[in-house]
Design a protein that fits this description.
This protein has 267 residues and is an all-alpha fold. The protein has 11 helices and no strands.
Length: 267
């Protein structure tokens, strides 16, 4: 938790430098043509998420350790096991990410991350306040697979740092895009245009998108945001907006069964 707080403090210091215009060229590279208002909104949402992380992170690790203690099999304590654990984590990330876009209840949490009308490094901060909860539940699959708490803590930190970098404005591609993800491909994922929606769910590895039929190449700069919805500026409003939409969706269903279905399926 201390490391997480330090990473956020350093990143927020960079955002402060951007907002103050310390270096116009540096600001342009990081923020592009986006607005200061959107950048600060993303940072504000990030502060709310950080607060939830500080409250829940200990519980998440304790839950993982408890489930791992129930599993009789374990990955061996070797460097290669960290590599295996990292790949498994990225597989879980891909599955979770696809479901977050497919299941309305999960989308209400994840939609916050897609609200920004700009695409730059500050979008990495824009994470739903409750995002830790589904992530913790999906990551229990690693405990069942035999990943130890120490291995999980190590690979989770590295994975989170690499995912943070996906929102950079770099056009660098690796491979190009045969195996590894890159900011230019994740930019596609944030696109609000029809050909880009629900594409490129991968984290560090892009190969899962290719195998799963969800890969789309970057062909032009997309528009960003959630299609047909505004981008709330205030952090609490940003978090509440998707839930208000989901609640309206549930209320519009005529029967209890239909209301329950509305939480889990797009009709």
């Amino acid at each position: 938790m201390v490391l997480l707080a330090v990473v956020y403090l350093v990143a927020f210091a960079l955002l402060g430098a951007i907002a103050l215009g310390v270096s116009p060229s540096f600001r342009t590279w990081l923020r592009g043509t986006g607005s200061i208002r959107q950048t600060l909104s993303n940072a504000g949402v990030g502060l709310v998420f950080l607060a939830s992380q500080l409250l829940l992170r200990g519980v998440v690790l304790a839950l993982f350790a408890w489930v791992a203690g129930l599993v009789p099999w374990k990955l061996p304590d070797s460097p290669w096991s960290f590599v295996v654990a990292f790949v498994l984590l990225d597989v879980v990330y891909y599955v979770q990410h696809r479901l977050e876009h497919a299941v309305p209840l999960l989308w209400a949490i994840h939609a916050v991350h897609h609200q920004s009308n700009d695409y730059n490094l500050s979008v990495s901060f824009r994470v739903g306040a409750l995002a830790t909860i589904p992530t913790a539940l999906f990551h229990l699959a690693l405990a069942v697979a035999g990943v130890s708490p120490r291995q999980y803590a190590g690979v989770a930190i590295v994975h989170a740092i690499l995912l943070f970098a996906l929102h950079a404005r770099s056009t660098l591609a690796f491979g190009p895009g045969r195996i590894f993800n890159a900011p230019v491909y994740h930019r596609v994922h944030h696109g609000a245009d029809a050909e880009y929606i629900d594409r490129n769910f991968g984290g560090v590895f892009l190969i899962f998108d290719r195998l799963g039929g969800t890969f789309a190449p970057y062909t032009r700069e997309p528009s960003f945001g959630v299609t047909g919805e505004p981008s709330p500026t205030l952090p609490l409003t940003a978090n509440a907006a998707p839930w208000a939409k989901l609640a309206a969706r549930v209320r519009s269903r005529p029967t209890p069964r239909a209301k329950l279905r509305a939480l889990f399926f797009h009709d």
